[in-house]
Amino acid sequence: YLAIDVLALLFISVVLASSLTPWVDWFQRYHLPRSVGVIIIYVVVFLVISSMIFLIIPPLVEQIRALAISLPNIYGRAVLGLQQLQGEVGIDTAATLQSALDNLGSSLAKSTTSIFTALNSLFGGLIQLAVVLVISFYLIVQENGLKKFLRSVTPAKYQPYLMQLINRINIKIG
Question: What's the pTM value of the predicted model, to 2 decimals?
Answer without folding.
Answer: 0.65
